[in-house]
Amino acid sequence: MAMRSAGLNSTPLATYRNVCQCSFAFNLTLKPALRIAFVPVAQVSEKTGSLILPNQKGIVTLGMQGKKDYQEKLFASFQLSERIPKDNFYRRLKGALDLDFLYPLTRGHYGNSGQKSIDPVVFFKLCLVGYLENIISDRHLIAHCSMRLDILYFIGYDIDEELPWHSTISRTRQLFPEAVFEEVFTKVLALCVEKGMVIGHTQAIDSAPVKANASMDTLELKVPGEELEEHLKKVRAISSMDREEPHRKSKKDRSDKGQRTVSANTNELEAVKGRNKKWAKDQDQRPGAGNKGSKYTSNKTHYSPTDPDARISVKPGKARKLNYLSQLSVDTAHHVITDIRAYHADGKDNQQLPDIVKRLGKRLWQQGLVFENCVADTGYSSGENYAFLENRNLRSFIPPHGTYKGGPDGFEYVRSHDHYLCPQGKVIPFTKVFNDHRTGTKKKEYRARKHVCVDCPLRSSCLGKSAQEKKFSVTYYRDQYERNIARVESPEGRYMKGKRQSTVEPVFGTLTQFMGLRKINTIGLAQANKVMHMSAIAYNLKKYLKFIEKRSKSGAGQLALSTLLKNALMLLFGALEKDLEPNPQC
Ligand code: SF4
Q1: Please, which residues have CB within 8 angstroms of residue 154's CB and are 6 or more apart in sequence?
Q2: Tell me: the pLDDT tens digits for 12-44?
Q3: Ligand 1 geometric centre to CA of 413 (Å)
Q4: Is the C-beta atom of 422 inside 6 A of ligand 1?
Q5: Is there an atom of ligand 1 within 6 Å of 453 CB?
Q6: pTM for this prediction
Protein backbone atom coordinates (compact mmCIF):
# COMPACT_ATOMS: atom_id res chain seq x y z
CA MET A 1 0.00 0.00 0.00
CA ALA A 2 1.35 3.36 -0.97
CA MET A 3 1.38 5.88 1.86
CA ARG A 4 1.16 9.58 1.16
CA SER A 5 2.01 12.58 3.26
CA ALA A 6 -0.21 15.67 3.18
CA GLY A 7 0.93 18.42 0.74
CA LEU A 8 3.72 16.40 -0.87
CA ASN A 9 4.10 14.39 -4.04
CA SER A 10 5.33 11.44 -2.13
CA THR A 11 6.78 8.45 -3.93
CA PRO A 12 4.84 5.25 -3.44
CA LEU A 13 6.52 2.73 -1.19
CA ALA A 14 7.07 0.30 -4.05
CA THR A 15 8.79 3.00 -6.16
CA TYR A 16 10.96 4.06 -3.22
CA ARG A 17 12.03 0.53 -2.66
CA ASN A 18 12.96 0.16 -6.30
CA VAL A 19 14.86 3.44 -6.40
CA CYS A 20 16.70 2.59 -3.24
CA GLN A 21 17.67 -0.81 -4.43
CA CYS A 22 18.79 0.27 -7.91
CA SER A 23 20.15 3.81 -8.18
CA PHE A 24 20.99 4.88 -4.61
CA ALA A 25 22.26 1.69 -3.12
CA PHE A 26 20.45 2.54 0.06
CA ASN A 27 21.03 -0.19 2.56
CA LEU A 28 17.62 -1.51 3.39
CA THR A 29 19.14 -4.12 5.64
CA LEU A 30 19.41 -1.45 8.32
CA LYS A 31 17.33 -1.66 11.44
CA PRO A 32 13.66 -2.26 10.67
CA ALA A 33 12.73 0.68 12.90
CA LEU A 34 14.77 3.02 10.68
CA ARG A 35 13.20 1.63 7.51
CA ILE A 36 9.69 2.13 8.79
CA ALA A 37 10.47 5.71 9.76
CA PHE A 38 11.79 6.62 6.28
CA VAL A 39 9.39 4.76 3.98
CA PRO A 40 6.15 6.75 4.37
CA VAL A 41 7.73 10.18 3.94
CA ALA A 42 10.61 9.83 1.48
CA GLN A 43 10.53 11.06 -2.12
CA VAL A 44 13.07 11.31 -4.90
CA SER A 45 14.06 14.59 -6.53
CA GLU A 46 13.78 14.26 -10.31
CA LYS A 47 16.53 16.82 -10.97
CA THR A 48 19.24 15.67 -8.61
CA GLY A 49 18.22 12.17 -7.82
CA SER A 50 18.41 12.91 -4.11
CA LEU A 51 16.22 11.47 -1.45
CA ILE A 52 14.01 14.15 0.09
CA LEU A 53 12.99 13.81 3.69
CA PRO A 54 10.11 16.26 4.26
CA ASN A 55 10.34 16.05 8.05
CA GLN A 56 13.87 17.41 7.95
CA LYS A 57 15.11 20.76 6.81
CA GLY A 58 17.59 19.81 4.10
CA ILE A 59 18.10 17.30 1.36
CA VAL A 60 20.07 14.20 2.14
CA THR A 61 22.29 13.05 -0.71
CA LEU A 62 23.08 9.45 -0.04
CA GLY A 63 25.55 8.77 -2.90
CA MET A 64 28.74 7.12 -1.47
CA GLN A 65 28.59 8.97 1.83
CA GLY A 66 28.99 6.71 4.80
CA LYS A 67 26.99 7.00 7.98
CA LYS A 68 28.19 5.27 11.10
CA ASP A 69 25.50 3.54 12.96
CA TYR A 70 26.34 2.84 16.59
CA GLN A 71 24.72 0.10 18.48
CA GLU A 72 26.38 -0.91 21.69
CA LYS A 73 27.37 -4.56 21.73
CA LEU A 74 26.80 -6.62 24.79
CA PHE A 75 29.75 -8.85 24.02
CA ALA A 76 32.73 -7.72 22.00
CA SER A 77 35.77 -9.48 20.69
CA PHE A 78 38.54 -7.12 21.79
CA GLN A 79 42.21 -7.52 22.64
CA LEU A 80 43.83 -4.55 24.37
CA SER A 81 47.36 -5.36 23.22
CA GLU A 82 46.22 -5.31 19.58
CA ARG A 83 44.90 -1.79 19.94
CA ILE A 84 48.17 -0.31 21.29
CA PRO A 85 50.63 0.61 18.53
CA LYS A 86 54.11 -0.91 18.72
CA ASP A 87 55.75 2.51 19.08
CA ASN A 88 53.39 3.76 21.79
CA PHE A 89 55.25 5.34 24.73
CA TYR A 90 53.57 3.26 27.42
CA ARG A 91 53.97 0.07 25.41
CA ARG A 92 57.69 0.71 25.10
CA LEU A 93 57.88 1.66 28.77
CA LYS A 94 56.16 -1.58 29.74
CA GLY A 95 58.80 -3.49 27.81
CA ALA A 96 61.72 -1.54 29.30
CA LEU A 97 60.67 -1.36 32.95
CA ASP A 98 60.75 -4.43 35.13
CA LEU A 99 59.46 -3.67 38.62
CA ASP A 100 59.15 -7.26 39.85
CA PHE A 101 61.84 -6.62 42.46
CA LEU A 102 59.16 -4.64 44.32
CA TYR A 103 57.31 -7.79 45.45
CA PRO A 104 60.02 -9.06 47.82
CA LEU A 105 61.01 -5.48 48.71
CA THR A 106 57.54 -4.44 49.91
CA ARG A 107 56.28 -7.79 51.27
CA GLY A 108 57.11 -6.83 54.84
CA HIS A 109 54.85 -3.77 54.71
CA TYR A 110 51.65 -5.78 54.25
CA GLY A 111 49.65 -7.43 57.00
CA ASN A 112 48.57 -11.08 57.15
CA SER A 113 44.82 -10.53 57.29
CA GLY A 114 42.15 -8.25 55.87
CA GLN A 115 41.44 -7.27 52.31
CA LYS A 116 43.99 -7.75 49.55
CA SER A 117 45.86 -4.56 48.91
CA ILE A 118 46.93 -2.94 45.66
CA ASP A 119 49.71 -4.67 43.72
CA PRO A 120 52.94 -2.71 44.47
CA VAL A 121 53.90 -2.77 40.78
CA VAL A 122 50.49 -1.36 39.81
CA PHE A 123 50.84 1.29 42.51
CA PHE A 124 54.24 2.44 41.23
CA LYS A 125 53.08 2.36 37.62
CA LEU A 126 49.99 4.43 38.48
CA CYS A 127 52.16 6.95 40.34
CA LEU A 128 54.54 7.08 37.37
CA VAL A 129 51.66 7.79 34.99
CA GLY A 130 50.62 10.67 37.24
CA TYR A 131 54.02 12.34 36.87
CA LEU A 132 54.34 11.50 33.17
CA GLU A 133 50.92 13.01 32.53
CA ASN A 134 51.52 15.94 34.92
CA ILE A 135 48.54 15.02 37.13
CA ILE A 136 48.99 15.69 40.84
CA SER A 137 45.55 14.67 42.06
CA ASP A 138 45.05 10.95 42.75
CA ARG A 139 41.35 11.23 41.93
CA HIS A 140 42.07 12.80 38.53
CA LEU A 141 44.77 10.24 37.91
CA ILE A 142 42.39 7.30 38.26
CA ALA A 143 39.77 9.02 36.08
CA HIS A 144 42.45 9.72 33.47
CA CYS A 145 43.86 6.18 33.48
CA SER A 146 40.44 4.59 33.07
CA MET A 147 39.99 6.53 29.81
CA ARG A 148 43.34 5.62 28.23
CA LEU A 149 43.85 2.25 26.57
CA ASP A 150 47.65 2.57 26.46
CA ILE A 151 47.84 3.35 30.19
CA LEU A 152 45.53 0.44 31.02
CA TYR A 153 47.83 -1.78 29.01
CA PHE A 154 50.87 -0.36 30.82
CA ILE A 155 49.45 -0.97 34.30
CA GLY A 156 48.14 -4.41 33.29
CA TYR A 157 44.40 -3.76 33.49
CA ASP A 158 41.82 -4.76 30.89
CA ILE A 159 39.11 -2.35 29.78
CA ASP A 160 36.42 -3.99 31.88
CA GLU A 161 38.52 -4.20 35.05
CA GLU A 162 37.91 -1.68 37.78
CA LEU A 163 40.90 0.44 38.71
CA PRO A 164 41.98 0.84 42.36
CA TRP A 165 40.13 3.43 44.41
CA HIS A 166 41.99 6.76 44.45
CA SER A 167 42.46 6.83 48.21
CA THR A 168 44.34 3.51 47.97
CA ILE A 169 47.09 5.37 46.11
CA SER A 170 47.65 7.91 48.88
CA ARG A 171 47.42 5.26 51.60
CA THR A 172 49.96 3.05 49.84
CA ARG A 173 52.23 6.06 49.35
CA GLN A 174 52.19 6.54 53.10
CA LEU A 175 52.66 2.83 53.72
CA PHE A 176 55.89 2.38 51.79
CA PRO A 177 58.98 3.99 53.34
CA GLU A 178 61.20 6.45 51.49
CA ALA A 179 63.78 3.67 50.96
CA VAL A 180 61.43 1.84 48.56
CA PHE A 181 61.06 4.95 46.38
CA GLU A 182 64.82 5.52 46.48
CA GLU A 183 65.36 1.90 45.42
CA VAL A 184 63.11 2.34 42.38
CA PHE A 185 64.97 5.55 41.56
CA THR A 186 68.33 3.73 41.80
CA LYS A 187 67.08 0.89 39.56
CA VAL A 188 65.98 3.35 36.89
CA LEU A 189 69.30 5.16 37.18
CA ALA A 190 71.05 1.80 36.71
CA LEU A 191 69.11 1.35 33.43
CA CYS A 192 70.43 4.72 32.23
CA VAL A 193 73.98 3.85 33.33
CA GLU A 194 73.77 0.54 31.49
CA LYS A 195 72.94 2.33 28.25
CA GLY A 196 75.86 4.73 28.68
CA MET A 197 73.74 7.76 29.44
CA VAL A 198 75.56 8.61 32.69
CA ILE A 199 79.26 9.41 32.74
CA GLY A 200 79.41 10.36 36.40
CA HIS A 201 82.53 12.53 36.54
CA THR A 202 80.73 15.91 36.49
CA GLN A 203 77.60 16.54 38.52
CA ALA A 204 75.66 19.82 38.50
CA ILE A 205 73.74 20.59 41.70
CA ASP A 206 70.93 23.09 42.19
CA SER A 207 67.86 23.67 44.33
CA ALA A 208 64.37 25.08 43.87
CA PRO A 209 61.42 25.67 46.19
CA VAL A 210 58.35 23.53 45.53
CA LYS A 211 55.00 24.66 46.89
CA ALA A 212 53.74 22.75 49.89
CA ASN A 213 50.16 21.62 50.37
CA ALA A 214 49.43 24.29 53.01
CA SER A 215 48.14 27.82 52.95
CA MET A 216 49.74 30.91 54.46
CA ASP A 217 46.28 31.83 55.77
CA THR A 218 46.39 29.07 58.36
CA LEU A 219 49.71 30.13 59.90
CA GLU A 220 49.73 30.22 63.69
CA LEU A 221 52.01 32.05 66.07
CA LYS A 222 54.68 30.04 67.85
CA VAL A 223 54.60 30.39 71.62
CA PRO A 224 57.23 29.75 74.27
CA GLY A 225 56.61 27.02 76.86
CA GLU A 226 56.04 29.55 79.64
CA GLU A 227 55.21 33.26 79.77
CA LEU A 228 52.62 32.73 77.05
CA GLU A 229 50.71 35.97 77.55
CA GLU A 230 53.90 37.97 77.82
CA HIS A 231 55.21 36.50 74.59
CA LEU A 232 51.96 37.00 72.67
CA LYS A 233 51.90 40.62 73.76
CA LYS A 234 55.40 41.04 72.36
CA VAL A 235 54.93 39.34 69.02
CA ARG A 236 51.39 40.48 68.34
CA ALA A 237 52.56 44.04 68.48
CA ILE A 238 54.63 43.26 65.38
CA SER A 239 51.78 43.19 62.92
CA SER A 240 48.18 44.25 63.27
CA MET A 241 47.09 41.14 61.35
CA ASP A 242 48.42 38.88 64.09
CA ARG A 243 46.35 40.42 66.88
CA GLU A 244 43.40 38.19 66.21
CA GLU A 245 43.05 34.61 65.08
CA PRO A 246 44.56 33.37 61.77
CA HIS A 247 42.62 34.30 58.62
CA ARG A 248 41.45 30.77 58.24
CA LYS A 249 41.68 28.36 61.13
CA SER A 250 43.26 25.09 60.06
CA LYS A 251 40.89 22.13 60.34
CA LYS A 252 43.53 19.93 61.88
CA ASP A 253 46.67 20.80 63.80
CA ARG A 254 49.33 18.26 62.81
CA SER A 255 52.19 20.03 64.57
CA ASP A 256 53.90 18.70 67.66
CA LYS A 257 54.91 20.72 70.72
CA GLY A 258 58.40 21.36 69.39
CA GLN A 259 57.04 22.96 66.23
CA ARG A 260 54.61 25.16 68.16
CA THR A 261 57.32 26.43 70.47
CA VAL A 262 59.65 29.26 69.67
CA SER A 263 63.16 27.88 69.23
CA ALA A 264 64.81 31.16 68.23
CA ASN A 265 67.01 32.83 70.83
CA THR A 266 66.51 36.39 72.07
CA ASN A 267 68.96 37.85 69.55
CA GLU A 268 67.22 36.15 66.64
CA LEU A 269 63.81 37.27 67.89
CA GLU A 270 65.10 40.81 68.27
CA ALA A 271 66.34 40.67 64.67
CA VAL A 272 62.93 39.46 63.50
CA LYS A 273 61.26 42.20 65.53
CA GLY A 274 63.51 44.81 63.93
CA ARG A 275 62.70 43.56 60.45
CA ASN A 276 59.01 43.37 61.31
CA LYS A 277 58.93 46.94 62.57
CA LYS A 278 60.51 48.20 59.40
CA TRP A 279 58.21 46.07 57.30
CA ALA A 280 55.12 47.19 59.26
CA LYS A 281 56.11 50.84 58.93
CA ASP A 282 56.46 50.53 55.16
CA GLN A 283 53.54 48.20 54.76
CA ASP A 284 50.95 50.03 56.86
CA GLN A 285 51.24 53.06 54.61
CA ARG A 286 50.56 51.09 51.47
CA PRO A 287 47.06 50.70 50.08
CA GLY A 288 45.69 47.27 50.89
CA ALA A 289 47.86 46.91 54.00
CA GLY A 290 44.93 45.47 55.91
CA ASN A 291 44.17 42.89 53.25
CA LYS A 292 44.11 39.19 53.87
CA GLY A 293 47.61 37.79 53.94
CA SER A 294 49.20 41.15 54.53
CA LYS A 295 51.30 40.24 57.52
CA TYR A 296 54.96 39.74 58.15
CA THR A 297 55.67 36.11 58.71
CA SER A 298 58.81 34.30 59.72
CA ASN A 299 59.66 30.69 60.46
CA LYS A 300 60.93 31.89 63.83
CA THR A 301 57.54 33.23 64.91
CA HIS A 302 55.00 31.26 62.82
CA TYR A 303 54.28 27.65 61.96
CA SER A 304 51.78 25.86 59.75
CA PRO A 305 49.43 23.54 61.63
CA THR A 306 48.33 21.98 58.31
CA ASP A 307 51.83 20.91 57.34
CA PRO A 308 54.33 21.61 60.11
CA ASP A 309 57.25 20.54 57.88
CA ALA A 310 56.46 23.22 55.28
CA ARG A 311 58.48 26.40 55.74
CA ILE A 312 57.98 29.98 54.72
CA SER A 313 60.44 30.88 52.01
CA VAL A 314 60.70 33.49 49.37
CA LYS A 315 62.36 33.67 45.99
CA PRO A 316 63.41 37.09 44.70
CA GLY A 317 60.44 38.60 42.90
CA LYS A 318 58.00 35.97 44.21
CA ALA A 319 55.46 36.02 47.03
CA ARG A 320 56.17 34.38 50.39
CA LYS A 321 54.86 30.84 50.40
CA LEU A 322 54.99 27.64 52.37
CA ASN A 323 57.47 25.51 50.48
CA TYR A 324 59.76 22.53 50.46
CA LEU A 325 63.21 22.74 49.01
CA SER A 326 64.18 20.28 46.30
CA GLN A 327 67.90 19.55 45.97
CA LEU A 328 68.71 18.08 42.58
CA SER A 329 71.88 16.64 41.03
CA VAL A 330 72.15 16.08 37.31
CA ASP A 331 74.80 14.26 35.30
CA THR A 332 76.12 16.62 32.64
CA ALA A 333 76.45 13.97 29.90
CA HIS A 334 72.77 13.34 29.07
CA HIS A 335 71.01 15.33 31.81
CA VAL A 336 70.00 12.26 33.80
CA ILE A 337 68.97 13.00 37.39
CA THR A 338 71.41 11.27 39.72
CA ASP A 339 70.03 12.48 43.05
CA ILE A 340 67.00 14.31 44.43
CA ARG A 341 65.78 14.99 47.94
CA ALA A 342 63.31 17.17 49.81
CA TYR A 343 64.62 19.49 52.53
CA HIS A 344 63.04 22.10 54.78
CA ALA A 345 62.74 25.27 52.76
CA ASP A 346 64.34 27.45 55.46
CA GLY A 347 67.66 25.61 55.16
CA LYS A 348 70.55 27.03 53.19
CA ASP A 349 72.04 25.36 50.13
CA ASN A 350 75.56 25.46 51.55
CA GLN A 351 74.42 23.62 54.71
CA GLN A 352 72.99 20.80 52.61
CA LEU A 353 75.88 20.30 50.17
CA PRO A 354 77.87 17.76 52.28
CA ASP A 355 74.78 15.59 52.67
CA ILE A 356 74.08 15.69 48.91
CA VAL A 357 77.69 14.95 47.95
CA LYS A 358 77.95 11.98 50.34
CA ARG A 359 74.76 10.44 48.97
CA LEU A 360 75.66 11.19 45.38
CA GLY A 361 79.20 9.80 45.68
CA LYS A 362 77.88 6.56 47.21
CA ARG A 363 75.23 6.12 44.52
CA LEU A 364 77.67 6.74 41.65
CA TRP A 365 80.24 4.44 43.22
CA GLN A 366 77.61 1.67 43.41
CA GLN A 367 77.07 2.12 39.69
CA GLY A 368 80.81 1.86 39.03
CA LEU A 369 81.22 5.56 38.24
CA VAL A 370 83.75 8.04 39.58
CA PHE A 371 82.60 11.47 40.76
CA GLU A 372 85.27 14.13 40.09
CA ASN A 373 83.77 17.59 39.53
CA CYS A 374 81.09 19.26 41.65
CA VAL A 375 79.43 22.16 39.84
CA ALA A 376 77.00 24.43 41.70
CA ASP A 377 76.00 28.08 42.09
CA THR A 378 77.06 30.69 44.69
CA GLY A 379 74.45 29.49 47.17
CA TYR A 380 76.57 26.41 47.88
CA SER A 381 79.71 28.42 48.56
CA SER A 382 81.42 28.21 51.94
CA GLY A 383 84.96 27.55 53.12
CA GLU A 384 83.80 24.43 54.94
CA ASN A 385 82.27 23.09 51.72
CA TYR A 386 85.42 23.76 49.66
CA ALA A 387 87.50 21.95 52.30
CA PHE A 388 84.97 19.10 52.47
CA LEU A 389 85.10 18.60 48.69
CA GLU A 390 88.91 18.72 48.61
CA ASN A 391 89.07 16.10 51.35
CA ARG A 392 86.98 13.82 49.17
CA ASN A 393 89.24 14.46 46.15
CA LEU A 394 86.51 16.40 44.38
CA ARG A 395 87.14 19.53 42.36
CA SER A 396 84.67 22.30 43.15
CA PHE A 397 83.40 24.73 40.54
CA ILE A 398 81.36 26.90 42.90
CA PRO A 399 81.68 30.70 42.59
CA PRO A 400 82.44 32.30 46.00
CA HIS A 401 79.68 34.31 47.67
CA GLY A 402 79.85 38.09 47.42
CA THR A 403 81.04 38.65 50.98
CA TYR A 404 84.27 36.68 50.51
CA LYS A 405 87.42 38.76 50.67
CA GLY A 406 90.85 37.26 50.88
CA GLY A 407 91.83 40.11 53.27
CA PRO A 408 91.45 43.91 53.55
CA ASP A 409 91.81 45.92 50.32
CA GLY A 410 95.40 46.80 49.52
CA PHE A 411 96.82 44.15 51.89
CA GLU A 412 98.98 41.42 50.43
CA TYR A 413 98.98 37.90 51.83
CA VAL A 414 102.34 36.16 52.27
CA ARG A 415 101.58 32.44 52.35
CA SER A 416 105.05 31.30 53.35
CA HIS A 417 104.88 33.24 56.65
CA ASP A 418 101.10 33.32 57.01
CA HIS A 419 100.97 37.07 57.48
CA TYR A 420 99.74 40.15 55.60
CA LEU A 421 101.69 43.16 54.36
CA CYS A 422 99.81 46.43 54.71
CA PRO A 423 100.01 49.23 52.06
CA GLN A 424 102.85 50.72 54.12
CA GLY A 425 104.78 47.44 53.96
CA LYS A 426 104.22 46.62 57.66
CA VAL A 427 103.69 43.01 58.75
CA ILE A 428 100.30 42.12 60.23
CA PRO A 429 100.91 38.71 61.84
CA PHE A 430 98.53 35.83 62.47
CA THR A 431 97.37 35.68 66.08
CA LYS A 432 94.64 33.02 66.58
CA VAL A 433 91.93 30.75 65.17
CA PHE A 434 88.41 31.27 66.52
CA ASN A 435 84.78 30.37 65.81
CA ASP A 436 82.62 33.28 64.76
CA HIS A 437 79.43 32.70 66.79
CA ARG A 438 77.46 35.03 64.50
CA THR A 439 78.08 33.09 61.28
CA GLY A 440 79.12 29.80 62.89
CA THR A 441 82.29 29.67 60.80
CA LYS A 442 85.96 29.13 61.62
CA LYS A 443 88.15 32.21 61.21
CA LYS A 444 91.76 33.37 61.58
CA GLU A 445 92.63 36.61 63.30
CA TYR A 446 95.53 38.88 62.21
CA ARG A 447 96.59 41.68 64.52
CA ALA A 448 99.46 44.21 64.54
CA ARG A 449 100.99 45.80 67.67
CA LYS A 450 100.03 49.34 68.58
CA HIS A 451 103.44 50.82 67.84
CA VAL A 452 103.36 49.57 64.19
CA CYS A 453 100.71 52.10 63.16
CA VAL A 454 101.67 55.03 65.40
CA ASP A 455 103.23 57.27 62.76
CA CYS A 456 101.40 56.00 59.73
CA PRO A 457 100.00 58.66 57.36
CA LEU A 458 97.11 56.31 56.43
CA ARG A 459 96.13 55.75 60.06
CA SER A 460 92.76 57.55 60.00
CA SER A 461 91.52 55.84 56.84
CA CYS A 462 93.03 52.46 57.76
CA LEU A 463 92.15 52.18 61.46
CA GLY A 464 89.05 54.35 61.70
CA LYS A 465 88.25 56.72 64.56
CA SER A 466 88.79 54.68 67.69
CA ALA A 467 91.00 51.67 66.84
CA GLN A 468 94.55 51.77 68.16
CA GLU A 469 95.95 48.89 66.14
CA LYS A 470 95.16 47.03 62.91
CA LYS A 471 93.06 43.93 63.53
CA PHE A 472 90.99 41.89 61.09
CA SER A 473 89.77 38.35 60.56
CA VAL A 474 89.80 36.17 57.47
CA THR A 475 88.17 32.81 56.82
CA TYR A 476 90.13 29.80 58.02
CA TYR A 477 89.68 28.26 54.55
CA ARG A 478 91.36 31.03 52.56
CA ASP A 479 93.55 28.60 50.58
CA GLN A 480 90.59 26.44 49.59
CA TYR A 481 88.71 29.56 48.52
CA GLU A 482 91.62 30.71 46.39
CA ARG A 483 92.08 27.33 44.72
CA ASN A 484 88.36 27.20 43.95
CA ILE A 485 88.37 30.76 42.56
CA ALA A 486 91.31 29.89 40.27
CA ARG A 487 89.33 26.91 38.94
CA VAL A 488 86.11 28.93 38.49
CA GLU A 489 87.94 31.68 36.58
CA SER A 490 89.83 29.29 34.31
CA PRO A 491 88.49 28.41 30.80
CA GLU A 492 87.38 25.07 32.25
CA GLY A 493 85.47 26.94 34.97
CA ARG A 494 83.67 29.06 32.39
CA TYR A 495 82.78 25.90 30.48
CA MET A 496 81.45 24.35 33.69
CA LYS A 497 79.31 27.41 34.37
CA GLY A 498 77.72 27.05 30.95
CA LYS A 499 77.23 23.34 31.58
CA ARG A 500 75.47 24.03 34.89
CA GLN A 501 73.16 26.60 33.34
CA SER A 502 72.28 24.34 30.44
CA THR A 503 71.96 21.18 32.52
CA VAL A 504 70.36 21.43 35.90
CA GLU A 505 68.25 24.56 35.41
CA PRO A 506 66.23 23.21 32.43
CA VAL A 507 65.73 19.93 34.30
CA PHE A 508 64.09 21.81 37.16
CA GLY A 509 61.95 23.67 34.65
CA THR A 510 60.78 20.37 33.15
CA LEU A 511 60.04 18.83 36.55
CA THR A 512 58.02 21.77 37.80
CA GLN A 513 56.17 22.48 34.54
CA PHE A 514 55.61 19.03 33.04
CA MET A 515 56.39 16.35 35.62
CA GLY A 516 53.97 17.08 38.43
CA LEU A 517 56.40 18.93 40.68
CA ARG A 518 54.57 22.27 40.61
CA LYS A 519 53.14 21.41 44.01
CA ILE A 520 53.64 18.73 46.64
CA ASN A 521 50.25 17.05 47.05
CA THR A 522 51.15 15.33 50.31
CA ILE A 523 51.84 16.36 53.90
CA GLY A 524 55.22 16.05 55.62
CA LEU A 525 58.87 15.98 54.61
CA ALA A 526 59.05 12.20 54.06
CA GLN A 527 56.03 12.28 51.74
CA ALA A 528 57.45 15.27 49.87
CA ASN A 529 60.65 13.29 49.38
CA LYS A 530 58.70 10.40 47.85
CA VAL A 531 56.90 12.77 45.49
CA MET A 532 60.21 14.25 44.34
CA HIS A 533 61.68 10.81 43.74
CA MET A 534 58.70 9.75 41.65
CA SER A 535 58.93 12.88 39.55
CA ALA A 536 62.64 12.25 38.96
CA ILE A 537 61.98 8.59 38.08
CA ALA A 538 59.39 9.66 35.49
CA TYR A 539 61.86 12.18 34.05
CA ASN A 540 64.70 9.65 33.81
CA LEU A 541 62.47 7.02 32.21
CA LYS A 542 61.31 9.48 29.59
CA LYS A 543 64.94 10.35 28.86
CA TYR A 544 65.86 6.69 28.74
CA LEU A 545 63.18 5.75 26.22
CA LYS A 546 64.06 8.73 24.05
CA PHE A 547 67.73 7.79 24.17
CA ILE A 548 67.26 4.14 23.20
CA GLU A 549 64.83 5.10 20.45
CA LYS A 550 67.33 7.56 18.98
CA ARG A 551 70.10 5.03 19.31
CA SER A 552 68.19 2.27 17.56
CA LYS A 553 67.23 4.67 14.75
CA SER A 554 70.77 5.89 14.23
CA GLY A 555 72.22 2.40 14.62
CA ALA A 556 74.74 3.65 17.17
CA GLY A 557 73.86 0.81 19.52
CA GLN A 558 74.43 -1.81 16.84
CA LEU A 559 77.69 -0.16 15.87
CA ALA A 560 78.85 -0.24 19.48
CA LEU A 561 77.80 -3.87 19.78
CA SER A 562 79.54 -4.89 16.57
CA THR A 563 82.72 -3.06 17.63
CA LEU A 564 82.54 -4.84 20.97
CA LEU A 565 82.08 -8.21 19.25
CA LYS A 566 84.90 -7.45 16.82
CA ASN A 567 87.26 -6.55 19.66
CA ALA A 568 86.28 -9.67 21.59
CA LEU A 569 86.87 -11.88 18.54
CA MET A 570 90.20 -10.22 17.84
CA LEU A 571 91.26 -10.78 21.41
CA LEU A 572 90.17 -14.41 21.29
CA PHE A 573 91.79 -15.23 17.96
CA GLY A 574 94.87 -13.18 18.82
CA ALA A 575 95.33 -15.34 21.92
CA LEU A 576 94.70 -18.51 19.91
CA GLU A 577 97.24 -17.53 17.24
CA LYS A 578 99.78 -16.87 19.98
CA ASP A 579 99.16 -20.33 21.41
CA LEU A 580 99.54 -21.96 18.00
CA GLU A 581 102.80 -20.19 17.13
CA PRO A 582 105.79 -22.62 17.25
CA ASN A 583 107.91 -22.15 20.31
CA PRO A 584 111.57 -21.52 19.21
CA GLN A 585 112.83 -23.09 22.43
CA CYS A 586 111.09 -26.40 21.64
S1 SF4 B 1 97.62 52.09 59.81
FE2 SF4 B 1 98.97 50.45 60.30
S3 SF4 B 1 98.17 48.76 59.11
FE4 SF4 B 1 97.23 50.58 58.29
S5 SF4 B 1 98.57 51.15 56.61
FE6 SF4 B 1 99.29 52.24 58.37
S7 SF4 B 1 100.83 50.91 59.24
FE8 SF4 B 1 99.70 49.69 57.83
Answers
A1: 90, 91, 93, 94, 125, 129
A2: 444 444 444 434 434 444 444 444 444 445 566
A3: 15
A4: yes
A5: yes
A6: 0.75
